[in-house]
UniProtKB/TrEMBL annotation:
PANTHER family: ALPHA/BETA HYDROLASE DOMAIN-CONTAINING PROTEIN, FI04476P. It comes from Cylindrobasidium torrendii FP15055 ss-10. The chain crosses the membrane at residues 12-33. Keywords: Hydrolase, Membrane, Transmembrane, Transmembrane helix. This is Alpha/beta-hydrolase. One of its GO terms (cellular component) is endoplasmic reticulum membrane.
Length: 394
Protein backbone atom coordinates (compact mmCIF):
# COMPACT_ATOMS: atom_id res chain seq x y z
CA UNK A 1 0.00 0.00 0.00
CA UNK A 2 1.25 3.43 -0.91
CA UNK A 3 2.17 5.64 1.99
CA UNK A 4 -0.29 8.30 0.81
CA UNK A 5 -3.18 5.87 1.45
CA UNK A 6 -2.00 5.31 4.99
CA UNK A 7 -1.77 8.93 5.94
CA UNK A 8 -5.46 9.84 6.27
CA UNK A 9 -6.19 6.88 8.55
CA UNK A 10 -3.15 7.66 10.66
CA UNK A 11 -4.36 11.21 10.93
CA UNK A 12 -7.86 10.06 11.95
CA UNK A 13 -6.46 7.70 14.56
CA UNK A 14 -4.29 10.48 15.91
CA UNK A 15 -7.29 12.79 16.11
CA UNK A 16 -9.40 10.16 17.90
CA UNK A 17 -6.69 9.33 20.42
CA UNK A 18 -5.96 13.00 20.93
CA UNK A 19 -9.66 13.67 21.51
CA UNK A 20 -10.00 10.79 23.98
CA UNK A 21 -6.90 11.94 25.79
CA UNK A 22 -8.22 15.50 26.04
CA UNK A 23 -11.50 14.18 27.47
CA UNK A 24 -9.66 11.97 29.95
CA UNK A 25 -7.48 14.83 31.14
CA UNK A 26 -10.54 17.14 31.34
CA UNK A 27 -12.37 14.57 33.45
CA UNK A 28 -9.37 14.36 35.76
CA UNK A 29 -10.09 17.88 36.94
CA UNK A 30 -13.58 16.88 38.14
CA UNK A 31 -13.82 15.61 41.73
CA UNK A 32 -15.78 12.46 40.82
CA UNK A 33 -13.30 11.18 38.26
CA UNK A 34 -10.35 12.35 40.27
CA UNK A 35 -11.53 10.25 43.19
CA UNK A 36 -12.02 7.20 41.01
CA UNK A 37 -8.70 7.63 39.23
CA UNK A 38 -6.67 8.05 42.38
CA UNK A 39 -8.30 5.40 44.57
CA UNK A 40 -9.52 2.95 41.89
CA UNK A 41 -11.66 1.50 44.68
CA UNK A 42 -14.30 0.41 42.18
CA UNK A 43 -11.85 -2.31 41.05
CA UNK A 44 -12.74 -4.80 43.76
CA UNK A 45 -10.28 -7.64 42.94
CA UNK A 46 -10.85 -10.43 43.62
CA UNK A 47 -14.41 -9.91 42.40
CA UNK A 48 -17.16 -11.06 44.76
CA UNK A 49 -14.69 -12.02 47.49
CA UNK A 50 -16.08 -13.66 50.61
CA UNK A 51 -14.22 -11.65 53.18
CA UNK A 52 -15.41 -13.81 56.07
CA UNK A 53 -13.48 -16.74 54.55
CA UNK A 54 -9.84 -15.57 54.42
CA UNK A 55 -8.61 -19.16 53.91
CA UNK A 56 -10.17 -19.01 50.41
CA UNK A 57 -7.48 -16.45 49.54
CA UNK A 58 -4.37 -18.21 50.74
CA UNK A 59 -4.26 -17.98 54.54
CA UNK A 60 -4.52 -21.02 56.83
CA UNK A 61 -7.97 -21.83 58.25
CA UNK A 62 -8.56 -20.15 61.64
CA UNK A 63 -5.41 -18.07 61.38
CA UNK A 64 -7.40 -14.91 60.66
CA UNK A 65 -10.07 -13.09 62.61
CA UNK A 66 -12.31 -11.35 60.05
CA UNK A 67 -14.20 -8.42 61.55
CA UNK A 68 -15.59 -4.93 61.00
CA UNK A 69 -13.79 -1.96 62.48
CA UNK A 70 -15.69 1.24 63.29
CA UNK A 71 -13.98 4.60 62.69
CA UNK A 72 -14.36 7.76 64.77
CA UNK A 73 -16.77 9.13 62.13
CA UNK A 74 -18.81 5.91 62.12
CA UNK A 75 -17.64 4.24 58.93
CA UNK A 76 -17.37 0.45 58.98
CA UNK A 77 -14.16 -1.08 57.61
CA UNK A 78 -13.70 -4.67 56.50
CA UNK A 79 -10.63 -5.96 58.39
CA UNK A 80 -8.52 -9.05 58.94
CA UNK A 81 -6.41 -9.66 62.01
CA UNK A 82 -3.94 -12.43 61.09
CA UNK A 83 -2.11 -14.29 63.85
CA UNK A 84 1.65 -14.60 63.97
CA UNK A 85 2.54 -18.06 62.64
CA UNK A 86 4.50 -18.75 65.84
CA UNK A 87 1.27 -18.51 67.81
CA UNK A 88 -0.80 -20.23 65.16
CA UNK A 89 1.57 -23.21 64.92
CA UNK A 90 1.47 -23.65 68.69
CA UNK A 91 -2.31 -24.11 68.71
CA UNK A 92 -4.03 -27.49 69.14
CA UNK A 93 -5.75 -29.13 66.12
CA UNK A 94 -8.42 -28.13 65.28
CA UNK A 95 -7.42 -24.54 66.02
CA UNK A 96 -9.71 -22.50 68.27
CA UNK A 97 -11.63 -19.49 66.97
CA UNK A 98 -8.95 -16.85 66.29
CA UNK A 99 -11.09 -14.11 67.84
CA UNK A 100 -10.30 -15.56 71.28
CA UNK A 101 -6.55 -15.19 70.57
CA UNK A 102 -6.38 -11.57 69.38
CA UNK A 103 -5.51 -10.11 72.75
CA UNK A 104 -2.84 -12.74 73.53
CA UNK A 105 -1.36 -12.25 70.04
CA UNK A 106 -1.21 -8.46 70.49
CA UNK A 107 0.53 -8.79 73.86
CA UNK A 108 3.05 -11.44 72.84
CA UNK A 109 4.01 -10.57 69.28
CA UNK A 110 4.66 -7.41 67.32
CA UNK A 111 1.97 -6.41 64.86
CA UNK A 112 2.29 -4.98 61.39
CA UNK A 113 -0.46 -2.53 60.52
CA UNK A 114 -0.68 -2.97 56.75
CA UNK A 115 -2.09 -0.06 54.71
CA UNK A 116 -2.53 -1.17 51.12
CA UNK A 117 -2.30 0.76 47.88
CA UNK A 118 -5.05 1.83 45.51
CA UNK A 119 -7.36 -0.58 43.67
CA UNK A 120 -8.31 -4.11 44.74
CA UNK A 121 -8.93 -5.27 48.29
CA UNK A 122 -7.20 -6.87 51.25
CA UNK A 123 -7.92 -10.29 49.67
CA UNK A 124 -5.80 -9.52 46.56
CA UNK A 125 -3.17 -12.23 46.06
CA UNK A 126 -0.08 -9.94 46.08
CA UNK A 127 -1.26 -8.53 49.44
CA UNK A 128 -1.92 -11.97 50.89
CA UNK A 129 1.70 -12.81 50.01
CA UNK A 130 2.76 -9.88 52.16
CA UNK A 131 0.67 -11.15 55.10
CA UNK A 132 2.13 -14.66 54.74
CA UNK A 133 5.67 -13.35 54.73
CA UNK A 134 5.10 -10.98 57.65
CA UNK A 135 3.38 -13.60 59.82
CA UNK A 136 5.84 -16.43 59.06
CA UNK A 137 9.28 -15.05 58.26
CA UNK A 138 8.88 -12.01 60.50
CA UNK A 139 6.77 -13.68 63.24
CA UNK A 140 4.43 -10.70 63.48
CA UNK A 141 0.64 -10.44 63.51
CA UNK A 142 -0.87 -8.45 60.66
CA UNK A 143 -3.84 -6.13 60.73
CA UNK A 144 -5.05 -5.49 57.18
CA UNK A 145 -7.91 -3.07 56.63
CA UNK A 146 -9.89 -2.01 53.62
CA UNK A 147 -10.31 1.76 53.66
CA UNK A 148 -13.71 3.42 53.35
CA UNK A 149 -15.21 2.78 49.92
CA UNK A 150 -12.97 -0.28 49.33
CA UNK A 151 -14.17 -3.92 49.44
CA UNK A 152 -17.23 -4.19 51.73
CA UNK A 153 -16.32 -1.09 53.78
CA UNK A 154 -18.86 1.74 53.92
CA UNK A 155 -18.37 5.32 52.71
CA UNK A 156 -16.27 6.96 50.03
CA UNK A 157 -12.52 7.45 50.02
CA UNK A 158 -10.94 10.81 50.74
CA UNK A 159 -7.53 11.82 52.03
CA UNK A 160 -8.82 12.75 55.52
CA UNK A 161 -11.04 9.67 55.53
CA UNK A 162 -8.20 7.23 54.86
CA UNK A 163 -6.14 8.77 57.62
CA UNK A 164 -9.08 8.37 60.03
CA UNK A 165 -9.32 4.73 58.91
CA UNK A 166 -5.65 4.10 59.66
CA UNK A 167 -6.04 5.76 63.06
CA UNK A 168 -9.09 3.58 63.85
CA UNK A 169 -6.97 0.50 63.07
CA UNK A 170 -4.17 1.76 65.33
CA UNK A 171 -6.62 2.52 68.17
CA UNK A 172 -8.19 -0.92 67.83
CA UNK A 173 -4.78 -2.62 68.23
CA UNK A 174 -4.08 -0.57 71.36
CA UNK A 175 -7.52 -1.52 72.77
CA UNK A 176 -6.64 -5.20 72.20
CA UNK A 177 -3.54 -4.75 74.38
CA UNK A 178 -0.78 -4.01 71.85
CA UNK A 179 1.93 -1.56 72.92
CA UNK A 180 2.58 1.27 70.48
CA UNK A 181 6.24 0.28 70.34
CA UNK A 182 5.18 -3.17 69.11
CA UNK A 183 3.27 -1.79 66.14
CA UNK A 184 5.10 -1.35 62.84
CA UNK A 185 3.18 0.74 60.30
CA UNK A 186 3.73 -0.58 56.76
CA UNK A 187 2.25 1.23 53.79
CA UNK A 188 2.41 0.27 50.14
CA UNK A 189 2.01 2.67 47.21
CA UNK A 190 -1.00 4.94 47.93
CA UNK A 191 -0.92 3.49 51.47
CA UNK A 192 2.45 5.19 52.04
CA UNK A 193 0.65 8.56 51.93
CA UNK A 194 -1.70 7.25 54.61
CA UNK A 195 1.12 5.68 56.67
CA UNK A 196 3.28 8.79 56.62
CA UNK A 197 0.35 10.88 57.80
CA UNK A 198 -0.51 8.41 60.57
CA UNK A 199 3.13 8.38 61.72
CA UNK A 200 3.19 12.19 61.67
CA UNK A 201 -0.05 12.36 63.66
CA UNK A 202 1.24 9.90 66.29
CA UNK A 203 4.52 11.83 66.48
CA UNK A 204 2.58 15.08 67.04
CA UNK A 205 0.84 13.39 69.98
CA UNK A 206 4.15 11.99 71.33
CA UNK A 207 2.92 8.44 70.85
CA UNK A 208 5.76 6.00 70.17
CA UNK A 209 5.52 3.35 67.44
CA UNK A 210 8.07 0.78 66.30
CA UNK A 211 8.54 2.47 62.96
CA UNK A 212 7.05 3.31 59.62
CA UNK A 213 7.91 1.52 56.37
CA UNK A 214 7.08 3.17 53.07
CA UNK A 215 7.09 0.62 50.25
CA UNK A 216 6.99 2.00 46.67
CA UNK A 217 6.10 5.48 47.92
CA UNK A 218 5.47 8.65 45.97
CA UNK A 219 6.54 12.07 47.20
CA UNK A 220 3.14 13.70 46.57
CA UNK A 221 0.23 12.96 44.25
CA UNK A 222 0.97 16.01 42.11
CA UNK A 223 4.58 14.88 41.62
CA UNK A 224 3.34 11.37 40.99
CA UNK A 225 0.94 12.48 38.27
CA UNK A 226 3.87 14.04 36.47
CA UNK A 227 5.75 10.75 36.43
CA UNK A 228 2.92 8.19 36.60
CA UNK A 229 2.72 5.57 33.86
CA UNK A 230 -0.64 3.98 33.05
CA UNK A 231 -0.23 0.18 33.23
CA UNK A 232 3.42 0.91 33.85
CA UNK A 233 3.77 1.98 30.21
CA UNK A 234 2.04 5.13 29.06
CA UNK A 235 3.15 8.37 30.69
CA UNK A 236 -0.09 10.10 31.74
CA UNK A 237 1.01 13.70 31.82
CA UNK A 238 3.94 13.75 29.37
CA UNK A 239 1.82 14.96 26.40
CA UNK A 240 0.53 17.78 28.58
CA UNK A 241 3.95 19.40 28.68
CA UNK A 242 3.25 20.57 25.14
CA UNK A 243 0.30 22.62 26.38
CA UNK A 244 1.35 25.52 28.61
CA UNK A 245 -0.13 25.43 32.15
CA UNK A 246 -2.18 22.26 31.48
CA UNK A 247 -0.20 20.15 33.94
CA UNK A 248 -0.39 22.94 36.51
CA UNK A 249 -4.16 23.14 36.10
CA UNK A 250 -4.52 19.47 36.98
CA UNK A 251 -2.24 19.79 39.97
CA UNK A 252 -4.24 22.78 41.10
CA UNK A 253 -7.56 20.95 40.73
CA UNK A 254 -6.23 18.05 42.78
CA UNK A 255 -8.35 17.53 45.89
CA UNK A 256 -6.43 14.48 47.17
CA UNK A 257 -2.86 15.62 47.61
CA UNK A 258 -1.30 12.98 49.91
CA UNK A 259 1.70 15.22 50.22
CA UNK A 260 4.06 12.84 51.99
CA UNK A 261 6.95 15.25 51.51
CA UNK A 262 5.33 17.85 53.71
CA UNK A 263 4.64 15.22 56.42
CA UNK A 264 8.36 14.37 56.60
CA UNK A 265 9.44 16.97 59.21
CA UNK A 266 6.71 15.77 61.61
CA UNK A 267 7.70 12.07 61.54
CA UNK A 268 9.80 11.36 64.64
CA UNK A 269 10.00 7.54 64.63
CA UNK A 270 12.23 5.11 62.73
CA UNK A 271 11.69 5.24 58.98
CA UNK A 272 12.44 2.80 56.19
CA UNK A 273 11.82 3.72 52.56
CA UNK A 274 11.84 0.87 50.05
CA UNK A 275 11.62 0.88 46.27
CA UNK A 276 12.43 -1.52 43.45
CA UNK A 277 14.49 -0.13 40.58
CA UNK A 278 12.16 -1.91 38.15
CA UNK A 279 8.97 -0.32 39.53
CA UNK A 280 7.28 0.91 36.36
CA UNK A 281 4.22 2.36 38.13
CA UNK A 282 6.02 4.73 40.46
CA UNK A 283 9.64 5.54 39.57
CA UNK A 284 12.12 4.93 42.40
CA UNK A 285 13.26 8.55 42.22
CA UNK A 286 10.24 9.34 44.42
CA UNK A 287 11.93 7.39 47.22
CA UNK A 288 15.18 9.27 46.73
CA UNK A 289 13.31 12.57 46.94
CA UNK A 290 11.70 11.47 50.23
CA UNK A 291 14.98 10.20 51.68
CA UNK A 292 16.72 13.44 50.74
CA UNK A 293 13.94 15.38 52.45
CA UNK A 294 14.83 13.60 55.73
CA UNK A 295 18.51 14.27 55.07
CA UNK A 296 18.21 17.90 54.04
CA UNK A 297 18.39 19.56 57.44
CA UNK A 298 21.73 17.86 58.15
CA UNK A 299 23.45 19.26 55.08
CA UNK A 300 24.97 22.72 54.69
CA UNK A 301 22.79 25.02 52.62
CA UNK A 302 23.96 26.29 49.26
CA UNK A 303 23.63 29.88 48.05
CA UNK A 304 22.26 29.27 44.60
CA UNK A 305 23.47 32.09 42.36
CA UNK A 306 20.49 34.03 40.97
CA UNK A 307 22.08 34.93 37.66
CA UNK A 308 24.60 32.24 36.82
CA UNK A 309 25.64 34.04 33.63
CA UNK A 310 27.00 36.97 35.64
CA UNK A 311 29.07 34.83 37.96
CA UNK A 312 32.72 35.70 38.25
CA UNK A 313 35.31 32.95 38.44
CA UNK A 314 35.60 33.59 42.14
CA UNK A 315 31.85 33.13 42.65
CA UNK A 316 32.06 29.92 40.72
CA UNK A 317 34.78 28.46 42.84
CA UNK A 318 32.93 29.34 46.04
CA UNK A 319 29.78 27.78 44.61
CA UNK A 320 31.49 24.54 43.66
CA UNK A 321 33.25 24.48 47.03
CA UNK A 322 29.84 24.61 48.69
CA UNK A 323 28.67 21.71 46.57
CA UNK A 324 31.73 19.70 47.56
CA UNK A 325 31.11 20.45 51.23
CA UNK A 326 27.58 19.21 50.85
CA UNK A 327 28.75 16.00 49.18
CA UNK A 328 31.31 15.45 51.95
CA UNK A 329 28.72 16.06 54.66
CA UNK A 330 26.40 13.58 52.97
CA UNK A 331 29.00 10.86 52.64
CA UNK A 332 30.10 11.33 56.27
CA UNK A 333 26.51 10.99 57.42
CA UNK A 334 25.44 8.01 55.31
CA UNK A 335 26.21 4.38 56.05
CA UNK A 336 26.23 2.71 52.66
CA UNK A 337 25.88 -1.06 52.16
CA UNK A 338 25.57 -3.00 48.95
CA UNK A 339 24.16 -6.50 48.88
CA UNK A 340 25.04 -7.81 45.45
CA UNK A 341 22.08 -8.50 43.15
CA UNK A 342 19.64 -7.63 45.95
CA UNK A 343 19.81 -4.12 47.28
CA UNK A 344 21.65 -0.91 47.99
CA UNK A 345 21.04 0.35 51.51
CA UNK A 346 21.73 3.90 52.69
CA UNK A 347 21.11 4.90 56.25
CA UNK A 348 21.72 7.72 58.67
CA UNK A 349 20.96 8.46 62.29
CA UNK A 350 19.05 11.59 63.10
CA UNK A 351 18.33 12.49 66.73
CA UNK A 352 18.44 8.85 67.89
CA UNK A 353 16.30 7.35 65.16
CA UNK A 354 17.45 5.82 61.87
CA UNK A 355 16.21 6.71 58.43
CA UNK A 356 16.93 3.97 55.88
CA UNK A 357 16.59 3.84 52.11
CA UNK A 358 16.53 0.39 50.50
CA UNK A 359 16.75 0.33 46.72
CA UNK A 360 15.96 -3.18 45.53
CA UNK A 361 17.27 -4.50 42.21
CA UNK A 362 14.02 -6.42 41.59
CA UNK A 363 10.49 -6.60 42.91
CA UNK A 364 8.45 -4.38 40.62
CA UNK A 365 5.57 -2.52 42.17
CA UNK A 366 3.14 -5.01 43.70
CA UNK A 367 5.63 -7.53 45.08
CA UNK A 368 8.24 -5.15 46.41
CA UNK A 369 8.04 -6.28 50.04
CA UNK A 370 7.72 -10.00 49.52
CA UNK A 371 11.32 -11.02 48.77
CA UNK A 372 13.04 -12.95 51.55
CA UNK A 373 16.19 -10.87 51.17
CA UNK A 374 14.24 -7.69 51.79
CA UNK A 375 12.23 -9.24 54.62
CA UNK A 376 15.51 -10.01 56.37
CA UNK A 377 16.63 -6.38 56.07
CA UNK A 378 13.26 -5.24 57.41
CA UNK A 379 13.26 -7.80 60.21
CA UNK A 380 16.78 -6.93 61.32
CA UNK A 381 16.02 -3.22 61.33
CA UNK A 382 12.84 -3.48 63.37
CA UNK A 383 13.76 -6.33 65.73
CA UNK A 384 11.45 -8.92 64.19
CA UNK A 385 13.77 -11.70 63.02
CA UNK A 386 14.58 -13.54 66.22
CA UNK A 387 11.06 -14.81 66.34
CA UNK A 388 8.64 -15.75 69.07
CA UNK A 389 8.53 -13.79 72.23
CA UNK A 390 12.04 -12.42 71.81
CA UNK A 391 10.67 -10.23 69.07
CA UNK A 392 8.80 -8.08 71.56
CA UNK A 393 10.93 -5.15 72.72
CA UNK A 394 10.77 -4.76 76.52
C1 LIG B 1 -23.47 4.64 62.75
O1 LIG B 1 -23.88 3.97 61.59
C2 LIG B 1 -24.87 2.96 61.79
C3 LIG B 1 -25.16 2.32 60.45
O2 LIG B 1 -23.97 1.96 59.78
C4 LIG B 1 -26.13 3.58 62.39
O3 LIG B 1 -27.06 2.55 62.68
C5 LIG B 1 -25.76 4.31 63.68
O4 LIG B 1 -26.89 5.00 64.19
C6 LIG B 1 -24.64 5.32 63.43
N1 LIG B 1 -24.20 5.90 64.69
C7 LIG B 1 -23.93 7.20 64.84
C8 LIG B 1 -23.46 7.62 66.20
O5 LIG B 1 -24.02 7.97 63.93
C1 LIG C 1 -11.70 -23.61 63.06
O1 LIG C 1 -12.43 -23.21 64.22
C2 LIG C 1 -13.68 -23.84 64.37
C3 LIG C 1 -14.28 -23.31 65.67
O2 LIG C 1 -14.33 -21.94 65.67
C4 LIG C 1 -13.53 -25.34 64.40
O3 LIG C 1 -14.80 -25.94 64.43
C5 LIG C 1 -12.78 -25.81 63.17
O4 LIG C 1 -12.53 -27.21 63.26
C6 LIG C 1 -11.46 -25.08 63.05
N1 LIG C 1 -10.78 -25.50 61.83
C7 LIG C 1 -9.48 -25.79 61.79
C8 LIG C 1 -8.95 -26.26 60.45
O5 LIG C 1 -8.72 -25.67 62.73
Amino acid sequence: MAISNLLPSARTAFAIWGGLYAIAIGLLTTPYFQRHTIYLNALRFPWGAEYHLPHKYGLSPNKTFPFQLTTSDNETLGSWFILSDDLYQSLPVPAPNPESLVSEACRQYPTILFLHGNAATRAYSARVQHYSAFTSRLHANVLAIDYRGFAESTGQPSEEGLILDARAAWDWLIEQGAKGTDILIVGHSLGTGVSANLAAQLSDENIAYRGVVLMSPFSSISELLKTYNIFGLIPLMKPLHMIPYAANAITWALAHKFDTLSAVPRIKGEVMIVHAENDWDIPYEHSEVLFNAFLEKHLPAIDVPRTPSELSNQDWSSFSAQIDQRKDAKSRLLRHTEIEHLAVVDEFTDSSRDVTLVLLRQGGHDYVGTQEGFQDILGAKFGLVRGGKHAIKE
